[in-house]
């Protein structure tokens, strides 16, 4: 059996970028399905589906890294793969979602803001507080989307990498 050279070994970045693109494409497709179905694509109830698929894609990315490499992956390498995956997925899907919901079909964001208003009214918030909350929601939505996507993805990565790591029993020399 021939040993693999360093140049044929996968890198955490190359595997993470590939699976980040795959994850972004899935997120875009899922977003479009929700929009076409008339659902509020930004409703929190859809987040758990994204979380499940994030776990699946991370496991597949980690498996690919081990299969293309020496069959081992440290916890840090798992986090590295996941970091690139989450960063690319959040950036690509976020950019598409931003363009779609602010330029192509602004009604998607208005549906979200209206659902936020209804939730606040159900909690009997005063109208002035609702207006202030919606104003800040409009200002900070995309920042929270990006930061929340990256932090949420990395939280998942911290857990997934515990289970997918496979330490090399032989110490490196």
- The total number of structural domains is 1
> How much β-strand is present in the residues?
under 5%
Mean pLDDT: 92
SSE-based structural type: mainly alpha
What's the β-strand tally? 0
Largest sheet: none
Low-confidence segments, ≥5 residues, pLDDT <50?
Answer: none
Distance between the termini: 20 Å
| Topology pattern, helix = H, strand = E | HHHHH
Radius of gyration: 20 Å
Output the number of helix runs: 5
Principal-axis shape: elongated
The proportion of residues forming helix, as a percent range, comes to over 70%
Features:
elongated; mainly alpha; single chain; 0% strand; 173 residues
In short:
This protein has five helices and no strands. The chain has helices at residues 12-36, 47-68, 75-104, 107-122, 127-164.
């Amino acid at each position: 059996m021939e040993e693999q050279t360093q140049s044929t070994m996968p890198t955490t970045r190359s595997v993470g970028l590939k699976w980040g693109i795959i994850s972004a494409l899935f997120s875009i497709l899922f977003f479009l399905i929700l929009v076409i179905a008339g659902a509020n694509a930004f409703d929190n109830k859809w987040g758990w589906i994204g979380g499940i698929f994030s776990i699946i894609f991370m496991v597949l990315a980690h498996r690919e890294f081990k299969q293309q490499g020496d069959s081992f992956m440290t916890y840090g390498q798992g986090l590295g793969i996941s970091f690139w995956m989450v960063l690319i997925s959040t950036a690509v899907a976020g950019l598409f979602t931003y363009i779609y919901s602010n330029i192509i079909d602004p009604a998607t964001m208005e549906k979200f803001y209206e659902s936020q208003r209804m939730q606040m009214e159900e909690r009997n918030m005063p109208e002035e507080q609702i207006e202030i909350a919606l104003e800040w929601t409009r200002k900070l939505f995309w920042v929270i989307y990006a930061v929340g996507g990256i932090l949420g993805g990395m939280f998942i990565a911290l857990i997934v990498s515990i289970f997918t790591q496979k330490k090399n029993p032989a110490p490196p020399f």
